Amino acid sequence: MQKIAVYNNATGIAGKLEFLCRGEQIEIVVEKTKEKLLEDVVRRSVSMVLLDVFMEAQGLGEGLRLIAEVRKTCRMPIIVVSDQTSDTAKVAALSIGADDFVNADDNPLVTMARIKSQLRRYVQLTGTRPRPAENMYRIDGLVIYDDQRKVTVEGREVYLTPTEYEILKLLVMEHGKVLSIPKIYEDIWQMRAVDVDNTVAVHVRHIREKIEDNPRKPKYLKAIWGTGYMVG
After folding, report:
1. Residue 49: beta bridge partners?
2. What predicted TM-score, i.e. pTM, was given to this entire model?
3. Which domains does the chain have, with CATH numbers?
4. What's the pLDDT score for residue 222?
C-alpha cells in the first residue's frame, strides 16, 4: 500500500480524500510538524507530499521554504493544496519545485486523479516497474535512458522531477514536432487542459535551466511562439 503525507491539513483535505484513497489502496498520513514530514520524506516511508498550506502573505513563504526543503532531499511528487487561487501563488509553488497545484475546493475526484497521475510517474521514475533496457532516446548531446529514468546532457547527469522527466521525454519522442500546451498537459496530466499555460511554462522553464547551457537561447527545448514547444 502506498502512503501519501498530508502536511498541516489546514483545509481538511485528508478527510475529503480518505474514502477515495482507501479504494485505491493508498494510506493518508497527516503530518502535524515539519520535522516529522521531513523525517518521513528522508526515510522514503511516504511516496508523495500533499502540502496543505495557506498560500497568502507569510504562508506563501512558509510553503515555498518547505517545498524547497523536500525537493533538496528527493524527487517524490509534491502537490500543493491551497485556498489561494491566484496565478502568483501557483507559479511560485511550481517554480520552487512543486509538481502540481490544486485548489482545496476542487472536486475530490479531480484531486484524486491528479494524485494517481503523479504517483504513476513516481513509480516509473524510481524504477519499481521493469523497463526494456533498449529504451534510449538521443538528440545530439541529450540522452534519455528510459530504463533507468535517467537524463544526461553531454555526459552530465541531470536530475528532473517526475513531471519534468515526462514532459521532456514526450517532446524528445516527438522530436521535430511542435506540441501545443494543451496537448502536453493532457498527455502528461491525463486531464482536460483548461487555463494551463502557466503550469506547463513553469515546468518547461525548470527543464531548460537543467539541460541548457543558456536557457534564454535553448539548444534543445524550444518555444514556438503562439503554438507550443518542441525538441530539435
Report:
1. 5, 78
2. 0.63
3. 2-125 (3.40.50.2300), 136-231 (1.10.10.10)
4. 94
